[in-house]
């Protein structure tokens, strides 16, 4: 039953992706509005949020919709006690719209009322609007095993490409924020990566696109806690936990600097957290450096 609802949510995301993509060209301008995180919203952010709210709340078995771009949780017109909640970053990396660089959509499907920790996730997915539109999903397949699968989205349908597994030999790294805003410990750690490893820098300013490189080539993506903002930038419910669910399903690891992002307690809907996602040994190294 839960698995069926999760599948329907993934289907709706796949069906909506080409439509969202097609609606982007005319919506690259900033509006006068700001979201709960204090960021100026683009016309595209607001439009994709409205579209996804309507679509997901119409799914049988989905009772609630929450998003980075709206203050409060929206409920379906008719709800049941065991309904699932969908939490969405409608456009991740939307500042890339101006320069025409890749962006994405992220979602988590939670079985508990929001805010809930990543341990309540029963599914997560992201769409990458790159040269082609791809969808990566993660959900339980049997007996507690969660699998990540990649699809190509064509004509609103998803065609399976295969299981996603991080390569054993990592090759890329990328960290967000300004270097001067990083803590001394984190600066030292990154200098070590630059000078003592063979990893190549890959950073594009959209978490989805950067994590997709990590899923493909192995490595690490992170947005650390900053000197003036120890909680970092990315949001736990809409970005950190869903991506952690996916990367852990693909054989990688996640961390807020101390523990798996799935174990971070969720106290508020728009809560931020430092985010590290990638190959297990590289995530372990960050935890050691920040300890
Ligand atoms: O420009 P910065 O500070 O490096 O931040 C980039 C990060 O912020 C984000 O754009 C935040 O996501 P939104 O675009 O959904 O607000 C991430 O995708 C990206 O990793
Ligand atoms: Mg985002
Ligand atoms: Mg966003």
UniProtKB/TrEMBL annotation:
Its main location: cytoplasm. SUPFAM superfamilies: Carbohydrate phosphatase. Residues 28-140 form the Fructose-1-6-bisphosphatase class I N-terminal domain. GO terms for molecular function: fructose 1,6-bisphosphate 1-phosphatase activity; magnesium ion binding. It catalyses: beta-D-fructose 1,6-bisphosphate + H2O = beta-D-fructose 6-phosphate + phosphate. Keywords: Carbohydrate metabolism, Cytoplasm, Hydrolase, Magnesium, Metal-binding. Binds 2 magnesium ions per subunit. Pfam families: FBPase, FBPase_C. Mg(2+) 1 binds at residues 68, 89, 91. Mg(2+) 2 binds at residues 89, 92, 239. Transmembrane segments: none annotated. Its EC number is 3.1.3.11. Residues 167-290 form the Fructose-1-6-bisphosphatase class 1 C-terminal domain. The keyword Glycoprotein does not apply. PROSITE patterns: FBPASE (PS00124). PANTHER family: FRUCTOSE-1,6-BISPHOSPHATASE-RELATED, SEDOHEPTULOSE-1,7-BISPHOSPHATASE, CHLOROPLASTIC. This is Fructose-1,6-bisphosphatase class 1. It comes from Halospeciosus flavus.
């Amino acid at each position: 039953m839960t698995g069926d609802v999760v599948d329907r949510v993934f289907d709706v995301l796949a069906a909506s992706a080409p439509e969202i993509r097609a609606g982007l060209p005319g919506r690259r301008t900033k509006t006068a509005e700001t979201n709960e995180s204090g960021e100026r919203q683009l016309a595209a952010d607001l439009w994709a949020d409205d579209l996804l709210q309507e679509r997901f709340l119409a799914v049988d078995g989905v009772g609630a919709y929450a998003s980075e771009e709206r203050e409060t949780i929206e409920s379906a017109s008719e709800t049941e006690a065991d309904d699932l909640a969908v939490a969405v970053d409608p456009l991740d990396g939307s500042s890339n719209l101006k320069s025409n660089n890749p962006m994405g959509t992220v979602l988590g499907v939670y079985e508990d009322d929001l805010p809930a920790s990543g341990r309540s996730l029963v599914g997560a997915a992201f769409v990458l609007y790159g040269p082609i539109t791809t969808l990566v999903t993660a959900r339980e397949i049997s007996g507690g095993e969660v699998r990540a699968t990649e699809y190509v989205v064509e004509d609103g349908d998803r065609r399976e490409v295969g299981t996603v597994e991080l390569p054993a030999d990592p090759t890329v790294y990328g960290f967000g924020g300004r270097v001067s805003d990083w803590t001394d410990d984190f600066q030292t750690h990154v200098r070590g990566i630059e000078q003592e490893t063979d990893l190549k820098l890959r950073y594009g300013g959209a978490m989805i696109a950067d994590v997709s490189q990590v899923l493909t080539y192995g490595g690490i993506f992170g947005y650390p806690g900053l000197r003036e903002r120890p909680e970092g930038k990315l949001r736990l419910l809409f970005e950190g936990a869903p991506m952690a669910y996916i990367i852990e399903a693909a054989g990688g690891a996640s961390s807020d600097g101390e523990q798996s992002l799935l174990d971070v307690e969720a106290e508020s809907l728009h809560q931020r957290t430092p985010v590290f996602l990638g190959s297990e040994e590289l995530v372990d190294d960050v935890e050691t450096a920040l300890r």
